[in-house]
Structure formats: structure tokens, C-alpha cells
Amino acid sequence: MKIESIELREIRMQLKSPFETSFGTTLNRRILEVEVIADGVSGWGEVTAVETPAYNSETTDTAWHIISDFIAPNLIGKNVNKASDFPALVAAIRGHEMAKSGIENALWDIEAQRKRVPLWKLLGGTMEEIACGVSLGIRENPASLVKKVEEELRSGYQRIKLKIKPGKDLEYVAAVRKEFPHIRLSVDANSAYTLDDMAHLKKLDEYKLLMMEQPLSWDDIYAHSKLQAQIETAICLDECIHNTPQALTAIELKACRIINIKLGRVSGHTEARELQGICHQRNIPVWCGGMLEAGIGRAHNIAMSTLPGFTLPGDVSASRRYWNEDIIEPAVEVTPKGTIQVPKGPGLGFTVKRALIERLTVRRNRWSAQHAAH
Ligand code: OSB
Ligand code: MG
Predict the structure, then answer these.
(1) Residue with the nearest Cα to atom 12 of ligand 1?
(2) Rounded to an integer, what distance in angstroms lies between the CA atom of residue 207 and that of residue 186?
(3) I want to staple 255 with a disulfide (CB 3.0 to 4.6 A). Which of 56, 120, 225, 366 is the partner?
(4) Strands of 106-175, DSSP E
(5) Given a cut of 90, is residue 35 above it in pLDDT?
(6) Which residues pair with 25 in a beta bridge?
(7) Cut 0.90: pTM above it
(8) 208 is catalytic
(9) Above 80 in pLDDT, residue 145?
(10) How much is the pLDDT for 370?
(11) CA separation for the pair 319, 332 (Å, rounded)
(12) Which pairing describes strands 211-213 and 185-188: parallel, antiparallel, or unpaired?
């Protein structure tokens, strides 16, 4: 693939309703979309960084900087044999996984189109239908959360995840569990607790949760191993895992029994596939996490979720839960049994709505091979 052009743009999109986590509330999204053209074929990727460095250390603006000043100038005009060669090209850039992922995933889209296969098949996916869950933000009171859960269950979603934080945890979980004794229910604290909260977190065992996601510090695998030894509920790591070696560390330390894989957090499809492989070998279930993605990020999540290690429902849900109008066609839809039918077309299998993206764009940067210095 000869990299002919790279276009980076920031789009603004408003969520249908505010999403509250332990680290803050989001309504207005600033999302980076990347289009790469190689051998005349256009491929798209999305940077899943959020606006503030509160989930991980990246932001929309740090990703803009890393792509504009380091990744794009280095990649333009180069010949890249396969998308999986990309990580080696950016290995000298430490961290910034989400910035890297936005570009790498566009290369995967191109490679799949050139081979005339759906991206999910190129990745080695085996499922033609994937299981979906939802992630529900923190709400003003338990009663309104119960109502929301009921609505999502009526739509068919197979697993409900509740965002929690200190002071908005036990009461909310108890209310939902009382109303729905048998559903697959989990919680996500986004690093809001410490080991001093051990006795408090132990109380969640009584609610038979599928998992407790990232209760402790975003970069402390060791602390999670101490907690997992003391509680019955399976810990699932999200923020702590950026690559396969960190996953191996967590598994060997028994810091978790489940891992959430996010394409951006682990730097793209190449590493995500490797990570799910080592988890699958070790009987550690994985599932696809979400970052309030627009359609391009969502389409990449669907492709990844077809790999054999993805045995639990992901946070991959319908476009209409987030947006009045998504940037891909058709929008992502969920069946009444809580699944997404994986698209059959080549590449991402969705059409990017260029005119809409153009209208949503607030800034752009473009590199083309003719002007590249070499
Ligand atoms: O921890 O999974 C998380 C959203 C933003 C940042 C972190 C997380 C989330 C979600 C939303 O839980 C998942 C979704 O996209 O629906
Ligand atoms: Mg999470």
C-alpha cells in the first residue's frame, strides 16, 4: 500500500443525552476521524480519545498533536506492505495508543477492501452476529436508573452495565437487582475507589454481578490483584491494559478474571487481536468496550468483536442510543434479541457519509505524497 494521502479532521457531535461516569459528564463530543488513501483506495479510522485526560492520559488534542507532528509526516509516501506492519513504524512513539489506532485501523480498512473481503474476515473473525450490552451513565436517583434498565432490556440488550462511583453505588445496584433478579448485570467504577474501600466493595458480592470493571487506580495492576483475592465478584480490567504484556502481567498476578478490549486503548487491530488470542488460550473471556464512538469507531468495534475470544456481550450498541444522525450508512442497529448482524461488504462494510462529516468538521490537516519531502 503506497500511502498517497492522509486527512485528519475534528468533528463535533452532540450526544442525545449527557453521559455521567465517575470522572465526569460528557454531552458534546470532539472526535477525530482519519481518512487514508493508498493505491487509490480510501480507508477510515476514528480516534477514540475523549476531551479530557480523565479516562486515560490522551485527549482529542494530544491525539491531534501526535498524528499531525509525528505519525502523518512519517507515514506519507511510504509503502506499507500490510496494516499489521504499522505498529513497528510507530514503535518509537511511546504511548499515545489512541492516536496510533486511528491511523492503523484506516490501513486495515484499506487492506480489506483491496483483498475484497470484509474487515472482520481479514482479522480472522468467526462470528456473523455479535452479542450486545449497554453501558448506563450515573443517574440522579435509583428509580430513574431502574426505568432506564427496563427500557434497554425491552430493546433486547443482553447485559446491563451500571456506572458507579462512591456514594452512587450500593443503593443503585440493589434497586436494579431487586427489580431484575436474573439479568446479566455488571458495574464500572472507572478507577473511583482505592484499597481502603475493600470492605465497601466486598458488599457488592451479594448482587451476583457478572463483573466489576476497573474499580481501582487506572495504572495499578498490583492493587487489583490484592482486591481480587478478597472479593468473589470477577474483576474486569479496562484502563490498566494497554498491550499484551500488561494483560499477561494482570493474568499471572490474578488481578482480574475478565478483560475489556478497546481498540484505541490497545493501539489498534493488530494488538487487539494478539491480546484476545493470549486471553483465549488462558480462558480469560474478553469483550469489546466502547468510548461513545461515532459510526466509524463503532464499525471497527463490530469487526473486532467477531474474533473467537469475544465471548461476552460488548458495549457495542445501536447508533440511535447516542446520535440523532450517525456518520455511517446504514446506522448500527440491534436486533430484538440484542445482537448486531455483522456486515457482509468489503472493508468496514458501512458507507461513510462524507457530506455529513464535512458539515460537522471544525478543523482539518492534510498530507499528500506529492508534497512529502522525499
Ligand atoms: O469505561 O467503558 C468505559 C465511555 C467513555 C469512557 C470510558 C468508558 C465509557 C463507557 C461507554 O462505558 C461505553 C459506550 O460507548 O457505550
Ligand atoms: Mg470501563
Answers:
(1) 135
(2) 9
(3) 225
(4) 129-131, 134-136, 160-163
(5) yes
(6) 20
(7) yes
(8) no
(9) yes
(10) 79
(11) 5
(12) parallel
